[in-house]
Amino acid sequence: MTAPPASPHEPAGPDRRAAPPPDPGHEAGTGRHPGSGGPVRQEARGERREPRRPAEDPAAHGGLLALPELPPPEPESLLDPDPAPPANGRPCGNPRCRRTVGAPAAGLPARFKGVCRHCRTPYSLLPQLHPGDTLDGGRYIVRGCLANGGLGWVYLARDTRLNNRPIALKGVLNPHDPAARAAMLEERDRMIAIGDDAIVRIYDYVSHQPAQGLPVDYIVMEFIGGKSLRTVLNECKRGLRPFGPGTPLTLEHVARYGCQILRALSVLHRRGLVYSDMKPDNVIHCGTRVVVIDLGGVQEPDDITRRAVITTTYAAPETVKGHPPTVAHDIHTVGVTLGELAEAVGEQPGPPGDAEGGVEGSVEVGVRSFRRVVARACRTDPHERFAGADEMAEQLEGVLRELMSLRTGEPATKPSVVFAPSHTLLDAGLGAVPGTAHWRGRRARDYRRGRVRSPALDPGRPSPSQVAVGLPVPFPDPSDPAIVQLRLPAPEAPRGVVRQLELFLEPGAGGGRGSPEVLLSLCRAHLRVRHELPSGADGRDGQGGRGGQDEARAAELDRAESRLDQAAQILARRHGRRLSVGKLDRADWRLAWHHGLVRLARGDVAEAERYFDLVGEALPGEYPPKLALAYCAEHLGRPGRALPLYRAVWRRNPQQSSAAFGLARICLADGRRAEAAEALDGVPPLSRHYDAARIAAVRVRAARLAVPGGKNGEGDGEGEGDGDGDGDGDGDAGLPDWASLGRAGRDLSALDLDGGAPAGEERTRLTAELREWALDRARSDERDKAAARAAPAAGMPSGPPFAPGPGLPPTATGLRALLSGSFLRLARQTDTTPEELEHLVDCANAVHPRSWFFRRRTRSTPR
């Protein structure tokens, strides 16, 4: 006989078997196991049928989880013409024997019907129904055998009362096995009680008396027309396209499979059950969704009274060793299933930092995130896996959104359920209008001599201390004893927050003394207090002397670290073991996140990166760890690693303005002006940092860029330079072209500055900065006559703010006069000090074009 083909109903692989007896060291009295994934509500057996709850429609996610539609196959095409019993046999039906029957022994072929050699109990592993047999008084007509599962045969039949609708009949493999019959009845009761469209439904229950032998009971089930994931895998391995000629299997499809499978398992977990035997054979791709079949292995978690039905290649290590299946075991089986499907895709990530940052649509970050989901689900320690199906589905959906946004360039936004949105922009001045102090260091006499060049644009990379208090904050753990107090309105001042949180720790404050979340909040509050204190004269975070403000800043940092250590001790006692930063537990990622914040505040960015990477391993579908890792890589001088991370966050959610600014900084450092401005233009109007992004885009388009090696940010040739300027850069390197300046001038007029007024102090300062850069461009063109002649073809602007009137082209003389007027208006601004006023007036007089006065000669009167 040949092995039966893949079928949409419970085919079993050769390695499917019952788990060995429980480990004697297991806590039999408690029925619990360390890998149980937390307490699970137990349900009574034999419940009444509930109203059927439809599965979560993929369209509810805007089509996010919808799979390519597969047309249903002809049911008869799935029949096995030569059904073969399981090659490894089955346990004897005698509960006191349970030896294997129907398997090859002593070099002899298997006998699929006979009596047990040990207890003489009869058995039969052959199909009990044949084509043409009828059940329930002729209502169901058997068409043939589909496959066999771990507990029974599955047959195709037609329902003559409902227009010959195809249905599936499931019976026991060995009718002489009362334990198998009891398991099938238990499966029937559970299937009736579940009632979810993501799980195969049951229609009826009938009994059939063959001509010879014992009566056999059958479950009448829904026939699921489609392809099993095993069939999808096999077709991919043969180089076929399972969804059609133009649709290959991608990681996005695998992630959708995983999300739908996990939501089906979540239905079981909420009812206090575990599935036990998840594998590609037991999932059917039907239409645009999947359906989980074969509930023969469903049982209560930690149930040591029955033999678990598992497949060893998918089972968790602790279950293979004899422990009963748990929620953590189900998570492991899903991880192995997704890993096997991903191998068929063959899309592998390169080493971190090897992705080509300039390649649009690169999915390196998304592929690595998917691999991290699978890796965490398959961890050896059950405590390190996802806490449940819902948590894993949430992270996998985040990875799916990341892959889609990177592949298509379209946003795939969804608010995080783990991190609160941050209102802080991680920027140090790129998106702000410079103050009058920006011109404080210029020498007026240099304007007169034409030696001053405008300084290169500061990309505005924030300090580690600023990032430590500006990154998103994790939502409090809902099970924390002080969750009610933590939801109270907090004071605006950081010291007020510290005072409020310390009151929660006092006796009688409602559980605050044992709350790790209160201590973690105190850690962040101390970091904010430290950040608002002025730093020492050397300007370094936490590196100054121990006197004055530096000592106060160091004390706040020590308090933050002390609160973090206290939170770690509480979590260690709660979990009954010593927590290690290098070994994540279900709550460890919160500790690792705060360790990273403290290390950032200390200026130890390399160590902070290690902690944030641990958080990224625990939460692969979240964007805050990627944002933190991108900043660390940028600070440590690894733009090749920072750029893909910034882009992944920005592509997925353009409202993450900090990622757009980080992406712009990386592009500016490489002289890619247009890409930097494009990233800033991508910040949507709904973002609270939209105005800052528009200001930054205007400055980027008009600015001189500090490009290493004197490379021009727009690809212009290097000018001769005057050799004695005091600005950044080398000669005329990094200057914008006139097209970029013209775009900046047009965008400047549309900026919402000074509260919407057409003129004001902010607009005056920004206009002065742009005119300085434009003057440098004009002076460069005067030195390079060829560039000056090509300027009109390159998009020479006309009119304000670079010319005195509409239609007039910008010239060096005209820009000097305009810049002189800008300096005079700066001198009259309200925040200008007397020293700055005098300096700006001197600069205005110096930069103004030289004026020539002629005295008319008159005829002298003769004596």
Automatic annotation (TrEMBL):
Q: What enzyme category does the UniProt record give?
A: transferase
- Composition bias of kind Basic and acidic residues appears in 12-30, 42-59, 777-787
Kindly give the PROSITE patterns that the UniProt entry links to this protein. Answer: PROTEIN_KINASE_DOM (PS50011)
Its keywords, alphabetically, are:
ATP-binding, Kinase, Nucleotide-binding, Serine/threonine-protein kinase, Transferase
One GO molecular function term of this record is: protein serine/threonine kinase activity
Compositional bias per record (Acidic residues), positions renumbered to this chain: 715-731
Q: What is its EC number?
A: 2.7.11.1
Q: Which residues form the Protein kinase domain?
A: 140-426
Q: Which domain of life is it from?
A: Bacteria
Q: What InterPro entries would the database entry show?
A: Kinase-like_dom_sf (IPR011009), PknG_rubred (IPR031634), PknG_TPR (IPR031636), Prot_kinase_dom (IPR000719), TPR-like_helical_dom_sf (IPR011990)
Instruction: State whether keyword Nucleotide-binding applies.
Output: yes
The keyword Protein transport is annotated on this UniProt entry: no
Q: Where is this region: Disordered?
A: 1-94, 450-469, 533-553, 707-739, 777-813
Coiled coil ranges (UniProt) are none
**Which stretches does UniProt call biased (Pro residues)?**
798-809
The reaction(s) annotated as catalysed by this protein in its Swiss-Prot or TrEMBL entry are:
L-threonyl-[protein] + ATP = O-phospho-L-threonyl-[protein] + ADP + H(+); L-seryl-[protein] + ATP = O-phospho-L-seryl-[protein] + ADP + H(+)
Q: Residue spans with biased composition (Low complexity)?
A: 788-797
Name of this chain's protein:
non-specific serine/threonine protein kinase
Which organism's genome codes for this protein? Streptomyces aidingensis
Organism taxonomic ancestry:
Bacteria, Bacillati, Actinomycetota, Actinomycetes, Kitasatosporales
